[in-house]
Amino acid sequence: MAKFHPELDLLTEHAAGNLPLAQAACVSVHMNYCDQCKRTSGQLQNLGAALFDNLHGEPVGDALLNSVLARLDDAPPLSYASASEWAAGRTPAILQRLMSGDLTDLVWKKITSTLRISYLKTGDPNFEFALYHIKAGGRIPEHTHRGSEMTLVLEGGFSDADGSYHQGDFLLRQPSDVHAPTAVQSEDCICLAVLDAPLKFTGWKYRWMNPFLQLNTG
Ligand SMILES: [Zn+2]
Predict the structure, then answer these.
(1) Which of 18, 25, 134, 192 fits 138 for a cystine, CB–CB 3.0-4.6 Å?
(2) Of 99, 124, 153, which closes a domain?
Protein backbone atom coordinates (compact mmCIF):
# COMPACT_ATOMS: atom_id res chain seq x y z
CA MET A 1 0.00 0.00 0.00
CA ALA A 2 1.31 3.42 -0.92
CA LYS A 3 2.68 5.54 1.94
CA PHE A 4 3.16 8.81 0.08
CA HIS A 5 0.09 10.47 -1.43
CA PRO A 6 -0.91 13.60 -3.35
CA GLU A 7 -1.95 16.45 -1.04
CA LEU A 8 -5.67 17.12 -0.69
CA ASP A 9 -5.51 20.29 -2.81
CA LEU A 10 -4.00 18.29 -5.65
CA LEU A 11 -6.71 15.60 -5.32
CA THR A 12 -9.31 18.36 -5.36
CA GLU A 13 -7.92 19.87 -8.55
CA HIS A 14 -7.79 16.38 -10.04
CA ALA A 15 -11.40 15.61 -9.11
CA ALA A 16 -12.49 18.93 -10.60
CA GLY A 17 -10.72 18.09 -13.86
CA ASN A 18 -8.46 21.14 -13.48
CA LEU A 19 -5.05 19.48 -13.67
CA PRO A 20 -3.03 19.48 -16.89
CA LEU A 21 -3.28 16.11 -18.63
CA ALA A 22 0.21 14.86 -17.76
CA GLN A 23 -0.18 15.65 -14.04
CA ALA A 24 -3.72 14.27 -13.95
CA ALA A 25 -2.40 11.07 -15.50
CA CYS A 26 0.23 10.71 -12.78
CA VAL A 27 -2.36 11.19 -10.01
CA SER A 28 -4.67 8.69 -11.76
CA VAL A 29 -1.93 6.07 -11.86
CA HIS A 30 -1.33 6.62 -8.13
CA MET A 31 -5.02 5.89 -7.50
CA ASN A 32 -4.58 2.60 -9.27
CA TYR A 33 -2.36 1.64 -6.31
CA CYS A 34 -4.18 3.56 -3.59
CA ASP A 35 -7.76 2.86 -2.47
CA GLN A 36 -7.55 5.67 0.07
CA CYS A 37 -6.99 8.39 -2.56
CA LYS A 38 -9.46 6.74 -4.94
CA ARG A 39 -12.11 6.95 -2.21
CA THR A 40 -11.25 10.56 -1.40
CA SER A 41 -11.40 11.45 -5.08
CA GLY A 42 -14.84 9.85 -5.41
CA GLN A 43 -16.07 11.89 -2.41
CA LEU A 44 -14.64 15.08 -3.89
CA GLN A 45 -16.36 14.41 -7.21
CA ASN A 46 -19.68 13.76 -5.46
CA LEU A 47 -19.23 16.94 -3.45
CA GLY A 48 -18.51 18.93 -6.60
CA ALA A 49 -21.60 17.50 -8.31
CA ALA A 50 -23.78 18.29 -5.27
CA LEU A 51 -22.51 21.88 -5.10
CA PHE A 52 -23.20 22.29 -8.79
CA ASP A 53 -26.75 20.96 -8.41
CA ASN A 54 -27.43 23.39 -5.57
CA LEU A 55 -26.51 26.47 -7.55
CA HIS A 56 -29.64 28.52 -8.07
CA GLY A 57 -30.04 30.53 -11.21
CA GLU A 58 -29.85 34.30 -10.87
CA PRO A 59 -31.32 36.63 -13.45
CA VAL A 60 -28.53 38.20 -15.50
CA GLY A 61 -28.56 41.34 -17.54
CA ASP A 62 -28.10 41.20 -21.30
CA ALA A 63 -24.67 42.85 -21.13
CA LEU A 64 -23.26 40.26 -18.72
CA LEU A 65 -24.82 37.39 -20.66
CA ASN A 66 -23.35 38.64 -23.91
CA SER A 67 -19.89 39.03 -22.44
CA VAL A 68 -19.98 35.50 -21.03
CA LEU A 69 -21.17 34.08 -24.36
CA ALA A 70 -18.41 35.96 -26.16
CA ARG A 71 -15.83 34.44 -23.83
CA LEU A 72 -17.19 30.94 -24.44
CA ASP A 73 -16.72 31.46 -28.16
CA ASP A 74 -13.07 32.32 -27.52
CA ALA A 75 -12.37 29.28 -25.32
CA PRO A 76 -10.05 26.71 -26.88
CA PRO A 77 -11.63 23.30 -27.51
CA LEU A 78 -10.85 20.61 -24.95
CA SER A 79 -8.26 18.38 -26.51
CA TYR A 80 -8.01 15.69 -23.90
CA ALA A 81 -10.16 13.66 -21.55
CA SER A 82 -10.91 15.14 -18.14
CA ALA A 83 -10.46 13.17 -14.94
CA SER A 84 -14.19 12.51 -14.79
CA GLU A 85 -14.14 10.97 -18.25
CA TRP A 86 -11.36 8.65 -17.13
CA ALA A 87 -13.46 7.71 -14.12
CA ALA A 88 -16.23 6.82 -16.58
CA GLY A 89 -13.98 4.17 -18.07
CA ARG A 90 -12.38 6.04 -20.95
CA THR A 91 -8.80 5.67 -19.75
CA PRO A 92 -6.21 6.82 -22.27
CA ALA A 93 -4.29 3.90 -23.78
CA ILE A 94 -1.02 5.19 -22.37
CA LEU A 95 -2.35 4.90 -18.82
CA GLN A 96 -3.91 1.52 -19.43
CA ARG A 97 -0.46 0.28 -20.38
CA LEU A 98 1.17 1.74 -17.28
CA MET A 99 -1.54 0.44 -14.99
CA SER A 100 -1.38 -3.06 -16.40
CA GLY A 101 2.41 -3.10 -16.04
CA ASP A 102 2.82 -3.55 -19.80
CA LEU A 103 6.08 -1.70 -20.30
CA THR A 104 7.36 -3.73 -23.23
CA ASP A 105 8.10 -2.16 -26.62
CA LEU A 106 9.24 1.09 -25.07
CA VAL A 107 12.03 3.11 -26.65
CA TRP A 108 14.71 3.84 -24.03
CA LYS A 109 17.34 6.54 -24.11
CA LYS A 110 20.48 5.62 -22.15
CA ILE A 111 21.58 8.48 -19.89
CA THR A 112 24.18 6.83 -17.61
CA SER A 113 25.23 3.23 -16.97
CA THR A 114 22.40 2.92 -14.42
CA LEU A 115 19.76 5.29 -15.76
CA ARG A 116 17.66 5.15 -18.92
CA ILE A 117 14.60 7.18 -19.82
CA SER A 118 11.63 6.50 -22.08
CA TYR A 119 9.66 9.57 -23.12
CA LEU A 120 5.95 8.94 -23.58
CA LYS A 121 3.62 11.08 -25.64
CA THR A 122 0.59 12.48 -23.91
CA GLY A 123 -0.35 15.17 -26.39
CA ASP A 124 0.39 17.80 -23.71
CA PRO A 125 3.34 19.89 -24.95
CA ASN A 126 3.87 21.69 -21.63
CA PHE A 127 4.93 18.64 -19.66
CA GLU A 128 7.53 15.94 -20.03
CA PHE A 129 5.98 12.55 -19.25
CA ALA A 130 8.62 9.87 -18.97
CA LEU A 131 9.54 6.55 -17.42
CA TYR A 132 12.83 6.37 -15.55
CA HIS A 133 14.51 2.99 -15.25
CA ILE A 134 17.20 2.97 -12.57
CA LYS A 135 19.24 -0.20 -12.17
CA ALA A 136 19.27 -1.78 -8.69
CA GLY A 137 21.51 0.37 -6.49
CA GLY A 138 21.90 2.95 -9.26
CA ARG A 139 21.76 6.65 -8.57
CA ILE A 140 20.18 9.55 -10.41
CA PRO A 141 22.69 12.42 -10.34
CA GLU A 142 21.86 15.25 -7.95
CA HIS A 143 19.59 17.77 -9.61
CA THR A 144 17.24 20.66 -9.08
CA HIS A 145 14.16 21.44 -11.16
CA ARG A 146 13.15 24.45 -13.15
CA GLY A 147 9.56 23.48 -12.51
CA SER A 148 7.77 20.91 -10.40
CA GLU A 149 8.50 17.19 -10.64
CA MET A 150 5.90 14.52 -9.92
CA THR A 151 7.24 11.02 -9.38
CA LEU A 152 5.30 7.80 -9.03
CA VAL A 153 7.01 4.48 -8.30
CA LEU A 154 5.74 1.75 -10.63
CA GLU A 155 8.18 -1.03 -9.75
CA GLY A 156 10.97 -1.51 -7.21
CA GLY A 157 11.80 1.50 -5.07
CA PHE A 158 14.22 4.30 -4.40
CA SER A 159 15.35 6.50 -1.56
CA ASP A 160 16.69 9.99 -1.12
CA ALA A 161 17.66 12.13 1.87
CA ASP A 162 13.99 12.49 2.86
CA GLY A 163 12.84 8.89 2.85
CA SER A 164 12.34 5.70 0.86
CA TYR A 165 9.58 5.14 -1.66
CA HIS A 166 7.98 2.02 -3.01
CA GLN A 167 5.33 0.87 -5.49
CA GLY A 168 2.48 3.37 -5.74
CA ASP A 169 4.22 6.12 -3.74
CA PHE A 170 3.65 9.62 -5.10
CA LEU A 171 6.05 12.55 -4.68
CA LEU A 172 5.80 16.15 -5.73
CA ARG A 173 9.05 18.13 -5.78
CA GLN A 174 9.25 21.88 -6.14
CA PRO A 175 11.87 23.81 -8.11
CA SER A 176 13.98 24.52 -5.03
CA ASP A 177 14.27 20.88 -3.90
CA VAL A 178 17.65 19.29 -4.56
CA HIS A 179 17.78 15.52 -4.43
CA ALA A 180 19.73 12.53 -5.67
CA PRO A 181 17.51 9.45 -5.66
CA THR A 182 19.11 5.99 -5.37
CA ALA A 183 17.32 2.80 -6.41
CA VAL A 184 16.95 0.05 -3.80
CA GLN A 185 19.76 -2.53 -3.89
CA SER A 186 17.52 -5.55 -4.40
CA GLU A 187 15.77 -4.68 -7.66
CA ASP A 188 15.55 -2.24 -10.54
CA CYS A 189 13.28 0.77 -10.10
CA ILE A 190 10.82 2.07 -12.68
CA CYS A 191 9.22 5.43 -12.00
CA LEU A 192 6.84 7.65 -13.85
CA ALA A 193 8.12 11.24 -13.84
CA VAL A 194 6.13 14.29 -14.89
CA LEU A 195 8.12 17.50 -15.25
CA ASP A 196 6.84 20.92 -16.15
CA ALA A 197 10.38 21.92 -17.04
CA PRO A 198 13.45 19.78 -17.76
CA LEU A 199 15.73 18.54 -14.98
CA LYS A 200 18.86 20.55 -14.27
CA PHE A 201 21.81 18.59 -12.91
CA THR A 202 23.87 20.43 -10.31
CA GLY A 203 27.02 18.27 -10.04
CA TRP A 204 29.80 19.47 -12.39
CA LYS A 205 30.33 15.92 -13.65
CA TYR A 206 26.82 15.79 -15.05
CA ARG A 207 26.48 19.26 -16.52
CA TRP A 208 27.09 17.82 -19.94
CA MET A 209 24.00 15.65 -19.60
CA ASN A 210 21.53 18.48 -19.48
CA PRO A 211 21.24 18.94 -23.25
CA PHE A 212 20.57 15.21 -23.57
CA LEU A 213 17.77 15.30 -21.06
CA GLN A 214 16.15 18.19 -22.82
CA LEU A 215 15.77 16.13 -25.96
CA ASN A 216 12.06 15.58 -25.86
CA THR A 217 10.37 13.30 -28.30
CA GLY A 218 7.01 15.01 -27.74
ZN1 LIG B 1 -2.93 7.76 -2.12
Answers:
(1) 134
(2) 99
For residue 3, is it within any domain? no
Q: How far is the CA of 37 from the centre of ligand 1 (A)?
A: 4
- Per residue in 37-93, pLDDT tens? 999 998 998 888 877 777 666 666 677 666 665 655 554 433 344 444 444 555 666
> Which residues are in the CB-under-5-Å shell of ion ligand 1?
5, 34, 37
Q: How far is the CA of 112 from the centre of ligand 1 (A)?
A: 31
Q: Give 20 Cα–ligand 1 centroid separation in angstroms.
A: 19
Average pLDDT over residues 137-146: 79
Residue 39 forms beta bridges with which residues?
A: none
Q: Are 126 and 197 in contact (CB under 8 A)?
A: no
How far is it, in rounded angstroms, from Cα 168 to Cα 152?
Answer: 6
Distance 29 CA to ligand 1 centre (A): 10
The CATH number covering residue 22 comes to 1.10.10
Q: What is the 3-state secondary structure (H, E, C) of 130-174?
A: EEEEECCCCECCCEEECCCEEEEEEECEEEECCEEEECCCEEEEC
Q: Separation of 6 CA from ligand 1 center, angstroms?
A: 6
Q: Is residue 104 domain-resident?
A: no
Number of domains forming the structure of the chain: 2
Q: Distance from the CA of 32 to the center of ligand 1, in angstroms?
A: 9
* Distance from Cα 139 to the centre of ligand 1, integer Å: 26
Residue 134's pLDDT is 93
- So what's the pLDDT on residue 141? 76
